[in-house]
Amino acid sequence: MLAQGATLVFLDVPAGTEFGVDMQTNVVGEKFRGVKMIPAGLHFIHYSAVSKTGASAPRTGFFHYFEKGEILVKKWDKAAEDVSSEPVSEEEVERLKVNLRGDLDQYLAVFSYVDWCSWIALTRHVTREVLERLQPESCVIHSATPFEPVKFCSRRGPDLASMASSSGDGGEDVHLADRARELLQLKELPEYRIRFTEIPRKRHPSNATPAEITRHGMDSSYVLERMLSSWPREHDLLGELQFVFVCFLVGHVYPCFEQWQKLVRVFCNSSEAIDRHPGLFSDLISVLHFQLREVPCDFFVDIVSRKNFLTEALALLFRNIAESAVEDDSPASLKMKAFRFKMSLTKMMGWSFEGAHGELSDEDAPVIVDLGDEHKPEGPNW
């Protein structure tokens, strides 16, 4: 197993640092040098620096596809309290490979298989291509998004000092205040931005008739089809649904949860697409099944309105599948799978879908187009 499994050598990590692979998190000790016997495939390496008072820094991590027998070497940068950006030399990697069966082995933690099956189910559709497209250019996932001033002045120190020491009629003070406001206008660093699939704001074709605009406003199938066409394979969008979920669940990235909600709404509100993509919706149910096992039943309840967005969205999905034209005469059919999923959620979460009518949020509400007087049928004047 040692020869088949991959190895992560993580050098110079301070004792007390929170470190984890996939869904497991531990606090490392003085002797920690990495993890061995990692199964081949996609894994998420995450860590948080811990202060002397025991306060943890926001979680940071990276995804990596491990090959059988691969040795990945990373070093800790004490000044940055993060993984060093400097590449490890080939000579040092080879030296560590030779030492792997010697003294180094005793300092390597064994990969925990407790949640491995769950991790596989949660990342089944996250292929290398999906990962490459979605992850930031830096390949680093930050729970706390790095920002920089919109208007950054490289000489702000001397400039501000000279303005603060100058005297006059107050004009310098006004200028200083304006500059301070500019520095407070922040933007997300592009190299750390997760590249979500954009959800089209236009919900209908350009040449759509008023009746078609209304129909597309009530059904997100047009939006879903456009999103599917932006990927090489239709199941890649399920890969994004899984990617953003684990980034939120394990990486603590809240914008990923917001993207997950948007994707779920699009899928659940796409009625016409079910007949065209029954296999996609069958796998969607499997994806949601494993995801919902990882969260408490009240997680999706709005603390203000007390509404559960997910029960409303899923009620709409179940209704759309039940009313679709897909065959339902076999135990493995989409309709039977959706029915069993609904029953399992009722039993596991205590959710009732009978009273949920699948109401849409304002952003998904149907667009009703006024046809105008010229489109109204002729009739008697009342």
UniProtKB/TrEMBL annotation:
<dbReference type="GO" id="GO:0000244">
    <property type="term" value="P:spliceosomal tri-snRNP complex assembly"/>
</dbReference>
<comment type="function">
    <text>Component of the U5 snRNP complex that is required for spliceosome assembly and for pre-mRNA splicing.</text>
</comment>
<comment type="subunit">
    <text>Interacts with PRPF8 (via RNase H homology domain). Component of a U5 snRNP complex that contains PRPF8.</text>
</comment>
<keyword id="KW-0507">mRNA processing</keyword>
<feature type="domain" description="AAR2 C-terminal">
    <location>
        <begin position="196"/>
        <end position="354"/>
    </location>
</feature>
<dbReference type="Pfam" id="PF05282">
    <property type="entry name" value="AAR2"/>
</dbReference>
<dbReference type="InterPro" id="IPR007946">
    <property type="entry name" value="AAR2"/>
</dbReference>
<dbReference type="GO" id="GO:0005681">
    <property type="term" value="C:spliceosomal complex"/>
</dbReference>
<dbReference type="InterPro" id="IPR038514">
    <property type="entry name" value="AAR2_C_sf"/>
</dbReference>
<dbReference type="Pfam" id="PF20981">
    <property type="entry name" value="AAR2_1st"/>
</dbReference>
<dbReference type="InterPro" id="IPR033647">
    <property type="entry name" value="Aar2_N"/>
</dbReference>
<protein>
    <recommendedName>
        <fullName>Protein AAR2 homolog</fullName>
    </recommendedName>
</protein>
<comment type="similarity">
    <text>Belongs to the AAR2 family.</text>
</comment>
<keyword id="KW-0747">Spliceosome</keyword>
<dbReference type="InterPro" id="IPR033648">
    <property type="entry name" value="AAR2_C"/>
</dbReference>
<dbReference type="InterPro" id="IPR038516">
    <property type="entry name" value="AAR2_N_sf"/>
</dbReference>
<keyword id="KW-0508">mRNA splicing</keyword>
<feature type="domain" description="AAR2 N-terminal">
    <location>
        <begin position="4"/>
        <end position="136"/>
    </location>
</feature>
